[in-house]
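The instructor's notes for this session suggest beginning with a concrete chain rather than abstract definitions. Hand out the sequence below and ask the class to guess, before any prediction is shown, which regions might be ordered.
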Amino acid sequence: MNSASPAAESALAIADSRRDPLYYLANFETVLRWVGQRYDDLLDSDERTFIDAFFALPTASRALLVRMVMRKGEYFRRAALDYAEIGDSGAALAPLIDAGLVEAAPLLGIETLAALLKRAELAALFADVVAPGLRKRELQARLAERFDTPRTPPHWQTAAGRVLPDEIVALSVMPLCERLRLMFFGNLRQHFSEFVLADLGHYRFETVPFTPDSRAFRCRADLERYEQLHRLRERFDAGEELATLIAELPAPFTDSHWLDTRRSRLVYAIARHCERCGELARAAQLYDDSRHHEARARRVRCLERLECFEAALELAQQGESEPGSEAERQQLARVIPRLRRRLGLARLPPAAAAEPVRLDLTLPRVASVERALCDHLDSAEAPVRYVENSLINALFGLLCWEAIFAPLPGAFFHPFQSGPADLLRTAFHARRETLFARCLAQLESGDYRATICHHFVAKQGLQNPFVAWPVLDDALLALALDCLPPAHLRLWFERLLGDIRANRAGMPDLIRFYPQRETAARYEMIEVKGPGDRLQDNQRRWIDFCARHAMPVTVCYVRWAEKASP
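After discussion, reveal the predicted structure:
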């Protein structure tokens, strides 16, 4: 676990889920104390009141509230709230209702009521209103036509003329609890189950010291803007009218790069939807409003389809001269000749490309073409391993461990992070340039082998965004350190740092080692393509990079052998 100041250290204790039946309560209280310490200046009056009221509740009531918070939805049948470790749910509910944390008679739409009741219960409740024998979906549709306004449980009983099969209550503080979860994790992707996974040893995390600057949100406005974007994304995913969503999109966040990145991803997603629906003008406008790494290239495509060829070419040439990434340069290189042809401009000479070695093989058909080739080529003198992206990434992650987990402001802000929060942001390398330079300098001094081996043992099993532990073993590590020249490792690692999002994928599938050779490079990387398969863009970029730097890389095209006639 990550560590914090002495005052916060005790608040980070994870309850033992195998021994403590109220482990979830202890962990939720950990979150409240942690948020109360680290975000004291950001909490509003409702959040402060909730935290104070929560700790004043009886233990059973606190436990029941946490059970409700951790379950799906905000509405519950009383019968579904029975837990052995809590005891009488009625007695536990009463203080929650008195404190206004749970509503005893909430307003329920027919959809919510139908979701809480079984088909037979719903049919029995409204037996005098709708015909018998309907499926639940049909029954709900008929009821929705008749009852179009929410009602409390007593009013539903009056409308139906029968008693509900169970009491129904609603959690009143779910949005507030979601906000506290957001403050703790810095996102709404992670849930409180992270505590249990860490407790059981399924996930183990590096220890990183926290500072007062180690927070996801600097101010209340950051928190509110995150929630605004999250709600807009939920509404977009639910299929809400695009015009309404676009009108509510906030302006770019010039004072927060990471929040503006989230905004750009949402704008890009809406633009892609518009493009797929043929709304090209709207899509082009939205792409222009997004800093997403693919937005410019997609806007060029929209302008081309709108037959705005001059505008498309101007934008494409701008991207070609100052590309945001190798991927963008590659995409635009395919579009520019087509646009020039449309405009009657002279044809440009094709760019020279380094060609890898090609190998064609016919093998017996099996489930995995990569495994088939690996088994075919493997030998004691030249062992072959199926590593794909894992080997080079792992060597990078092990060598540069200290730089990756450096406790910079805004990088680590809770105990369950597998890597820094800014890993995929453009400034990730720049903020740690000196640290990475120190790590990579070991490739010249020869110290890199000791560092990699030390971290392989000392950090075994800890989460790292570059290290897939199940793939890396002692034998593979030894072969890699013996056969991969440090000059090639530096080139690969520098390319990774240039664009982590794009370049940590696309590497060749197999690697063949030649430990007995006397040459500096005693390996060969092999990209495998089965029948009908072709190189993807990111694979082409990696292969081209290796070929340009005289790194041994082969593309093997496999055909399946014909079955012998009986």
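Then share the key points. The CA atoms of residues 65 and 96 lie 8 Å apart. Residues 257-276 form the longest helix (20 residues).
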